[in-house]
Amino acid sequence: MDRAATEAKIAALIEPFNKKGVAISDATTFAGDLEFDSLTVMDFVAAIEDEFDIIISMNQQAEIETWGQLVDAVVKLQG
Fold it and tell me: What angle do CA 79, 72, 6 make, to 5 degrees?
């Protein structure tokens, strides 16, 4: 799956978590812009893992701070 298709799928998954309706771009941060707390991050990551049948390790999660980094990581994990 290419980056655009992956990003579109993740965009659909983030809708229920994006309570403030923040406009998403590659530079959007989860902690700052979206104000995700740790529980929200865990729920969102679980939704992504289920949708794409991948595992995002805790180490990878710690390195992902922006929307663009997340999309790139999911594309890479899909092989």
Answer: 75
Find the helix or strand (DSSP H, E) in which 5 lies.
Answer: helix 3-14
Task: Give the residue numbers spanning the domain of 58.
Answer: 3-78
Average pLDDT, the chain: 96
The enclosing domain of 70 has a CATH number of 1.10.1200.10
Among left, alpha and beta (phi > 0; psi -120 to 50; other), residue 54 is beta
Query: How many separate domains does the chain show?
Result: 1
Residue 40 scores a pLDDT above 90: yes
pTM: 0.93
